[in-house]
Amino acid sequence: MAHHSLKLYDFHVWANQKVFDRLKELSGDIYEKKIQSVFPSILKVMGHIYVVDNVWLEIISGKKFDEVYALGERLKEQMETKKIEEVETMFFDLSDRYKVFLNRTEDMEKALVLETPFAGRLETRLSELVQHVVNHGTYHRGNITAMLRQLGHPGVMTDYILYLYEKGNKS
Q: What is the CA radius of gyration of the chain?
């Protein structure tokens, strides 16, 4: 049976797709429209999710924080010029990289030690970091829903239970 972390990550990909589908239904300017909110635009939120997802994949793949931080800064700059279709492609290329990594990982409970200058040392498990990536995405998809409502548009429901219903609760 597949590890629960793989199912959680599949949910993350599913939920991101739901957001992209919703954004593409709306007028093109909604994605870049300036708004007084947690982020100044939906583009900025999507860019943030993408950059952080990349950073965590690099970290769980064994790269050092300093290298990964520099990558994150470069990606953040690149995101500023991307249209929604480009960002969607980037997200799903990244999700393919995650799936390759996670599917070839034999022990999702293996111990990892992280060192960051802002938080110090952390001993954790790979499964907990996958859960963090998913939770981080969920939090910011909630920001997007609130921003869409603030702009006069319905949000999109991306609750885990809806994913389970849609997937037929298959393992």
A: 16
Name the amino acid, one letter, at 22.
Answer: R
Residue 113: what residue type?
A: V
Domains of the chain by residue range? 4-167
Is domain 4-167 in CATH 3.40.50.300, yes or no? no
Would you say the pTM of this structure is higher than 0.90?
A: yes
Helix ranges restricted to H, the chain: 4-25, 42-60, 65-79, 84-104, 126-150, 160-167
3-state secondary structure of 118: coil
Determine the straight-line distance between the first and last CA of the chain, rounded to whole angstroms. 7
What is the DSSP secondary structure assignment for residue 28, as one 8-state letter? G
Q: Could you tell me the sign of the dihedral formed by the alpha carbons of 66, 71, 74, 77, in that order?
A: negative
Give 84-100 pLDDT, tens digit per residue: 899 999 999 999 999 99
Tokens representing 159 are 């609750």
